[in-house]
Amino acid sequence: xxxxxxxxxxxxxxxxxxxxxxxxxxxxxxxxxxxxxxxxxxxxxxxxxxxxxxxxxxxxxxxxxxxxxxxxxxxxxxxxxxxxxxxxxxxxxxxxxxxxxxxxxxxxxxxxxxxxxxxxxxxxxxxxxxxxxxxxxxxxxxxxxxxxxxxxxxxxxxxxxxxxxxxxxxxxxxxxxxxxxxxxxxxxxxxxxxxxxxxxxxxxxxxxxxxxxxxxxxxxxxxxxxxxxxxxxxxxxxxxxxxxxxxxxxxxxxxxxxxxxxxxxxxxxxxxxxxxxxxxxx
Length: 282
Ligand SMILES: Cc1ncc(C[n+]2csc(CCOP(=O)(O)OP(=O)(O)O)c2C)c(N)n1
Ligand SMILES: [Mg+2]
Description:
By secondary structure, the chain is of the alpha/beta class. The protein has ten helices and seven strands. It has one domain: Rossmann fold (3-Layer(aba) Sandwich), CATH 3.40.50. Helices cover 40% and strands 12% of the residues. The strands form two sheets. Strands 2-3-4-6-5 form a five-stranded parallel β-sheet, with helices on both faces. A two-stranded antiparallel ribbon has the order 1-7. Helix 1 crosses helix 4, helix 1 runs antiparallel to helix 10 and helix 3 crosses helix 9. The protein binds thiamine diphosphate (TPP) and magnesium ion. The site of thiamine diphosphate has 21 residues, from helix 2.
């Protein structure tokens, strides 16, 4: 398995903190937001955009680019924070979150910002959209890949399972999906509300090649993604075990982190927590 060298690992760790700081910056501007799911998938976005995806912020509609779809669109603060860090748009835009006519909606809008490949937010659509993209790329003879992040709670939308079956039927081995398994949906634990466990065996049964990783570990994300497709002729599923609100210890692994209406005091604690992580990277 390929490994990040220590310099690359440090670079990515620093970027992940910057993206988490961007998430806080938006919540500070807007006063509230879906923070838990944004922070659980931040490390995946970091590895994808800063080490894996073939994208060009100067030419966001380049036909040969890889595609990324954030199916669980409510995690969009992480996507906005990543795209700004990558240079798709000026980071000053982040301060408009929550303002009238902002380009940063509560769910991503591809018509408002470069780098967003699809509107998402109504859960359960991103895998079908990604499968269509993957099929289209194959038909066009392009070797680009499509990456998509699903939420574990999102899997309760039945449309995911139709899309899963279609992707394996059409042998879309240029499709790589992640389930951000932070073990919570909006109101509590997924196992209590609507469990699709065991996820690995279910996806295998749907014809996918599956691996389970630590989704907050940059080495594991990088090492496994670079081995996709895991099997020729099959779509790849990465079940990423993550922690909801990762990076803010006082909020981690709690249902209440799903949507955060922040007080000044909490914001200060959160900023200090990220600062401590940044200073601890060496
Ligand atoms: C079709 C649809 N139904 C309901 C919602 C409301 N909703 C927003 S987030 C969420 C829970 C999602 O849980 P999960 O996918 O696990 O996301 P995460 O834990 O990362 O926040 C729900 C039900 C929605 N966005 N779309
Ligand atoms: Mg979840």
